[in-house]
Structure formats: structure tokens, C-alpha cells
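Incident log, structure service

09:12 report received: a user says their structure output differs between two submissions of the same chain.
09:20 pulled the input from the user's history:
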Amino acid sequence: MKNTGFLNKLKKQEKLEIIEPSEEIKQVYIEKFRNRFCKKGKNR
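09:34 re-ran on a clean worker, output below:
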């Protein structure tokens, strides 16, 4: 992923604190990902 390098850079600079995402947050990101990348595959 392109964003990982950016996040790691911030983490090294101690500007970003990594926290464990909750299940709810994970679901939101999964849905955003599906909406963005799976529109072409929808047959319904």
C-alpha cells in the first residue's frame, strides 16, 4: 500500500500514535474498501 510508508514516517517522527482499531472501525474501512474497489464486480 502506498500509505504505509507515509504512516511509518509519521510514526518514526512520533507524530502518529498507532492504536488498535476497534471492530467497528475495521468494518467501516472494509465497507469503504468494498464500495471503492468492488463496484465493477456487482451483479445484483
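09:41 both user submissions now match this output. Likely a transient worker issue. Closing.
09:42 reviewer note: The radius of gyration is 15 Å. Residues 20-44 form one domain.
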